[in-house]
Amino acid sequence: MHVEVEKSGPCEARVAFQVPAQEYQRRLQDRLVAVGRQAKLKGFRPGKVPAGVVQKLYGAEVERETLESFLREAYETAVKEHKLRPAAHPQVAMDELKPAAGADLSHSFDLALKPSFTLGNFEGLAAERKEITATDEEVEAAILDVRRQQAVPEPAGEDGLVEQGLALARVELLHGGELVVARDGLRLGLETTPNGVDAATYKEAMTGKREGESGEMPIVFPENFEKAELRGKEGQCRVILSQVFRLVLPEEEQLLRMFRAADGAELRAKVKEQLLDAKRQQDDQRIEQELFAKVLDEHPMELPKNVLESQIEGRFATARQQLTEQGVAPEEIEAQLEADRQATRDAAERSLRALYLVEAIGEKAELRIGQDDLVAELRRIAQRNRASVEEVRDYYEKNGLFQQLAVELLERKVKRLLRERSTAGQAS
């Protein structure tokens, strides 16, 4: 096999290869013979299936496998000998690859390459931590939130919907007296105001409402409303309650047992430390995002056009599906996608640049994602979703998501590295 590589752009290469007809036919026949030896057909002894029968039954499949083997060898040879860094596997139409009878196998394909850029400094970057505090009010609010999470719902009866209560409801949005959107089975409280409705007006309208009762209030359709023609316009929001509950909060004694605290003072001390830990983690994430954005801005790069276009189309496909599921009309969907085209392109481009930057920093810093990293992450995902590790692993295997998971874990390691080697990390 003879392989040639020609760089056709900063992130593109054309790979051409040629296989002499004799070599192609020899491998094709060898594969047919091998298949014939393993074939088990009624009326023939194992390994004694006539070549003509093998050709008739398996010829097309064997021919395809042979072509794929030469294509794979050409790809691997080009990558190894010319030190190419592919961004994606080549897309080759197999029907075009098949040679004419007695002719050499000769073909070429385009190969998208990862961008080549000089990795700048990513250590010792300036970053400042925020002062982390937790007030007594925040501690009490956190304790109340825990109590709400552990609360037991009971029918509200004549009291109707009250503070810290819960209702299952149907929400209808109207414009000009006509129903435009309806949602059933929503969980609402007096603190969960529908988007576009004034919170005080909503609370006044719904306080004390019982099962089967409803409340109406004005709404200004928000800027992200699914029906574009109604955005910013005024309408009515109708909330119909099907079930109303009051939440019975646990006593402090139950919280003491949950937190393994001897008394209220120790309980509040433990809750405060948890709040501080959560705030520290949030500040770590803020620093990491800021540092990574700074490094990304300092690394412009050419991107492989085909890969970028694929990313953009993938984002459009996702957005189109989501809007369709929301019941948006097809013509409105396309109009919205067109309006968001530049923003979608910019987001896809930045995301792709971030991917290549993460890979470059990971390689420079010798960061690795091993089996232990993947298993630990599967356990965290399982715990969050109240599923078994086996269920999560099966889902990721079935949907081919392990490569994506590895990339996400590498990105986390890179961002943590930036923070730890920044002035904020050194100060801590």
Indicate the topology:
Elements: E1 2-9, E2 12-19, H1 21-38, H2 51-81, H3 94-97, E3 105-112, H4 136-149, E4 152-155, E5 165-175, E6 178-188, H5 199-206, E7 214-220, E8 234-248, H6 252-259, H7 264-297, H8 305-325, H9 330-339, H10 341-364, H11 371-384, H12 389-398, H13 402-420, H14 423-427
Antiparallel strand pairs: 1-2, 2-3, 4-8, 5-6, 5-8, 7-8
Question: What would your notes on this structure say?
Answer:
The chain is an alpha+beta fold. The protein folds into 3 domains: 2-112, 2-Layer Sandwich (Alpha-Beta Plaits); 152-248, Chitinase A, domain 3 (Roll), CATH 3.10.50.40; 257-427, Trigger factor, C-terminal domain (Trigger factor, domain 2). Helices cover 51% and strands 17% of the residues.
Task: Write a concise synopsis of the structure shown.
This protein has 428 residues and is an alpha+beta fold.
Specify Rg, calculated over alpha carbons.
31 Å
Question: How many distinct folded domains?
Answer: 3
Q: What fraction of the residues are assigned to beta strands by DSSP?
A: 15-25%
What oligomeric state is this?
single chain
Mean pLDDT across all amino acids: 93
Helicity, as a percent range: 40-55%
CATH class of the largest domain equals Mainly Alpha
- The assigned CATH architecture of the largest domain is Orthogonal Bundle
Q: Name the overall outline.
A: elongated
Uncertain runs with pLDDT below 50, 5 residues or more? none
Order of helices and strands: EEHHHEHEEEHEEHHHHHHHHH
Individual helix count: 14
Q: Please report the total strand number as a whole number.
A: 8
The span between the termini is 59 Å
CATH topology-level name of the largest domain:
Trigger factor, domain 2
